[in-house]
Structure to design on (219 residues):
């Protein structure tokens, strides 16, 4: 869920302007899962724009302070959440760690890189939430170290019910600066897409797994 529509629209505007998010209903992308998708998101691009990354950092800080209070530790999910997490931790004057998707195959075999202590309260930083699987894997890694995860914040979420249900089941509050509905609303307002595109994008959101078969003619 998002907490402030005005700031969410501004985030959406930035993401579209600097081409973090590309919308191509007529030339869909193929995700790693095999899904055909009219949207592609690469939040790492925000780091190349000081104005945008500062805006995002400040929104993260405000969101964390208002929703969770100051934690003991900030944790970033590798790899997209690492740089964002460092920026937030620096602003809050807090320690930082990051969580790998898998344990290292050499050395100490760490999943969490950095110093974690039992009993610490943590807010997790993620760049993007799709199904929520990688995000919740990071949450569980922290809980395994007996940390209290206060919640998770991300730049963008697709808002899939699968992810919402997974976070609810895990009892982890997840908040995002911007979501899919806000994004396509801003895209239409700024003439980035047409009304026809809007309909296709809404249909994908309803059935992301099956959308490709209906939207892309067989060759």
């Amino acid at each position: 869920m998002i907490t402030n529509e005005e700031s969410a629209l501004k985030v959406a505007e930035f993401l579209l302007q600097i081409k973090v998010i590309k919308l191509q209903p007529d030339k869909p992308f193929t995700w790693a899962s095999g899904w055909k998708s009219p949207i592609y998101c690469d939040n790492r691009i925000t780091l190349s724009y000081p104005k945008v990354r500062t805006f995002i950092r400040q929104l993260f800080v405000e969101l964390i302070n208002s929703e969770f209070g100051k934690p003991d530790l900030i944790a970033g999910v590798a790899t997209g959440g690492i740089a964002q997490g460092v920026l937030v931790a620096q602003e809050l004057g807090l320690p930082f760690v990051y969580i790998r998707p898998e344990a290292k195959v050499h050395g100490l075999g760490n999943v969490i890189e950095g110093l974690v202590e039992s009993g610490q309260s943590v807010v997790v930083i993620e760049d993007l939430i799709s199904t929520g699987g990688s995000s919740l894997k990071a949450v569980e890694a922290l809980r395994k170290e007996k940390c209290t995860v206060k919640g998770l914040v991300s730049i963008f979420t697709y808002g899939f019910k699968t992810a919402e249900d997974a976070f609810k089941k895990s009892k982890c509050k997840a908040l995002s600066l911007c979501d899919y509905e806000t994004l396509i609303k801003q895209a239409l307002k700024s003439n980035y897409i047409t009304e026809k595109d809007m309909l296709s994008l809404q249909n994908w959101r309803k059935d992301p797994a099956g959308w490709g078969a209906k939207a892309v003619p067989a060759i």
Q: What stands out?
A: Residues 50-67 form the longest helix (18 residues). The longest strand covers residues 148-157.
